[in-house]
Amino acid sequence: MKFFIDTANLADIREAQDMGILDGVTTNPSLMAKEGITGKDNVMRHYKQICEIVQSDVSAEVISVTYDEMIKEGEELADIDENIVVKVPMSGDSIKAIKYFSEKGIRTNCTLIFSAGQALLAAKAGATYVSPFVGRLDDISTDGMALIEQIVTIFTNYGYTTEVLAASVRHPMHVIQCAEIGADIMTAPLSVMKMLLNHPLTDSGLAKFLADHEKANLPVK
Ligand code: E4P
């Protein structure tokens, strides 16, 4: 399973990249705003900086909602770098835009997916990725992971090449469950990736190894 980092924070992207486990980056307008990136020129510059750090897929989300505007904005984003994936929120106009982009060889990530029907439409239009939001479904007492499973099954049944990018991943168990189900990618903040490192038996085991080594190597009196 590929690991994407879900952030616009350059330090976090660098740290995940340095760990050697990073396969790409996803951003959204809220994450850009959180970093204080405002105005078209700054946004474009920020995406360029991200692309210079990772040299792999970087999802850049349009803020346009109509077909014509989405096409214009998406083409501008795609021109920033060959690794930019144009991220479009699920809608009728977006489905048309995904079809247009896929015919032009521009890769897309259809975001804000909350049902299997939405994922199926995006796949039929030629989306490179669909992003079902696990955590936000869990937030409203609906099983987010069940949606990942449903979409993986449907895409496998028909051999769709669209990849399932599990988004809104909030904790380590989400990551493990995505991997068990066979999601192609999961995107999560750096904090969630780091939580995967931890186990109390690793900590106590290492402390004992080091203490035993120290004892055995004390100078003989
Ligand atoms: C997906 O690409 C979104 O950026 C993200 O995963 C949303 O996560 P959240 O529900 O924690 O905001």
Give a brief outline of the structure.
The chain is α/β, with parallel strands linked by helices and 221 residues long. It has helices at residues 10-19, 29-34, 40-54, 67-80, 92-103, 116-125, 134-139, 144-158, 172-181, 190-195, 200-216, and strands at 2-6, 24-26, 57-61, 84-89, 108-113, 129-132, 163-166, 185-188.
Assigned CATH class = Alpha Beta
Helix content: 40-55%
User: What is the terminal separation in angstroms?
Assistant: 54 Å
What is the second-level CATH architecture? Alpha-Beta Barrel
* Rg, nearest Å: 20 Å
Unreliably modeled segments: none
Layout of strands and helices, then pairs:
Layout: E1 2-6, H1 10-19, E2 24-26, H2 29-34, H3 40-54, E3 57-61, H4 67-80, E4 84-89, H5 92-103, E5 108-113, H6 116-125, E6 129-132, H7 134-139, H8 144-158, E7 163-166, H9 172-181, E8 185-188, H10 190-195, H11 200-216
Parallel strand pairs: 1-2, 1-8, 2-3, 3-4, 4-5, 5-6, 6-7, 7-8
Helix pairs in contact: 1-3, 4-5, 5-6, 6-8, 8-9
Bound molecules: erythose-4-phosphate (E4P).
EC number: 2.2.1.2
Pfam families: TAL_FSA (PF00923)
Subcellular location: Cytoplasm
